[in-house]
Design a protein that fits this description.
The complex is a heterodimer.
Chain A lengths: L5 H25 L8 H23 L6 H5 L2 H16 L2 H22 L1
Chain B lengths: L2 H9 L1 H20 L4 H10 L3 H12 L4 H12 L2 H8 L8 H9 L3 H12 L7 H27 L11 H13 L3 H24 L5 H22 L1
Helix pairs in contact in B: 1-9, 2-4, 2-9, 3-9, 4-5, 6-8, 8-9, 11-12
Classes of the chains: A mainly alpha, B mainly alpha.
């Protein structure tokens, strides 16, 4: 649960929605006057998805701490690696989520069933 | 309805199979972050960009600052500048108003499928109708599935760790998006900085979300540098 007021959340939704629409419209609207993304901007944009997505994934797979050994032993990291292999192999979102969740459940609940 | 519109709608089915779980996860996450069902629905209908929506509700749930949330949400969608530039030459025959509503449906998948279809000139489909067939069907299913996710979300026991599906969704989009070595470097650099920065944010009480922006900037810088070094 967040501390945001309903108004705050509405403001966030509205601003991002309008900005996103303007980004989509940009070149479609301006075509004829500006026909290309400047090469330098293009170079930066090329790395936005990889950089942003990796920054979103990483802290979800480990609990950030200076104890690297504890971080590496996280069940979520192991499940994430399995899911990454599936994503690379099949490129399918549903399969990636399914296998990743299953791997996490096996690692978390599996030992209790066996021992 | 027109045959070209139907062709677009038909071609969207494969994409929908991937988007349905994404939309469900988003709906569940929005519920968890404390959004109302109306806010969640308007968000899906208005922003219509899964990654940005999921990041936004995560940051809202983490009580990040307003500016950070908005900036992050927009940065995630900047890639659409490239789609807009790339698809613009195909829309030059249409008037301002038509282009204005076509732009609204420009998502990753609508862009990729349309460009592929436009390249296959032998089929000579109507560009606008094919694009709309894709866009309208993806939009409708996206918004509807979001609501389903929101409603289901409340009934799922916490012990199942369903929120782990969020990084998994991002992972499923990340892996196919990496095409060359500089992008691998960008992703790795960003991941390492993200973990260090997330620790710093928790430890020193920095504003939530700063870690994400710092990591993304570091990743982009690492990628651009690698590309520069390799190009020489």
């Amino acid at each position: 649960m967040s501390d945001f007021s309903a108004l705050g959340i509405w403001a966030i939704i509205l601003v991002i929605a309008v900005a996103t629409y303007l980004i989509r419209l940009s070149f479609i609207h301006l075509f004829g006057r500006i026909n290309q993304v400047p090469p330098r901007v293009k170079l930066v944009l090329k790395f936005v998805p990889a950089a942003v997505l990796a920054a979103l994934v990483a802290p979800g797979l480990v609990t950030p701490s200076p104890d690297v050994a504890a971080m590496v032993l996280d069940e979520r990291l192991a499940a994430g690696i399995v899911a990454a292999v599936v994503a690379w192999w099949r490129g399918n979102i549903l399969l990636t989520i399914g296998v990743g969740m299953a791997a996490l459940w096996v690692l978390e609940f599996g030992p209790a069933l066996v021992f | 309805m027109n045959e070209d519109f139907n062709a677009g709608a038909r071609d969207s089915i494969g994409i929908l199979l991937g988007l349905v779980p994404f939309a469900l996860v988003f709906g569940i996450a929005a519920d968890g972050a404390g959004l109302s069902v109306v806010q969640t629905t308007v968000m899906s209908a208005g922003i219509f960009a899964g990654t940005a929506q999921l990041v936004t509700v995560e940051l809202i749930g983490a009580n990040a600052g307003l500016t950070i949330i908005v900036v992050t949400g927009i940065v995630v969608n900047l890639r659409m500048l490239m789609y807009s530039a790339s698809i613009a030459p195909h829309f030059t025959d249409y008037g301002k108003r038509t282009r204005a509503y076509l732009a609204y449906f420009l998502t990753d998948h609508v862009y990729a499928m349309s460009i592929a279809e436009y390249a296959a000139e032998a089929r000579s489909r109507d560009k606008r109708l094919y694009y709309l067939g894709l866009g309208v069907s993806i939009w409708s299913v996206w918004v509807a599935t979001t609501i389903v996710g929101f409603v289901l979300g409340a009934g799922i026991p916490e012990s199942l760790n369903l929120m782990f599906a969020i990084p998994l969704v991002f992972l499923a989009i990340l892996i196919p998006a990496i095409e060359d070595l500089p992008q691998v470097v960008a992703a790795l650099a960003s991941a390492v900085v993200a973990i260090a920065a997330a620790y710093a944010v928790a430890e020193f009480g920095l504003p939530a979300g700063v870690d994400l922006l710092v990591a993304a900037a570091a990743g982009i810088a690492a990628g651009v540098t690698t590309e520069g070094v390799m190009g020489r």
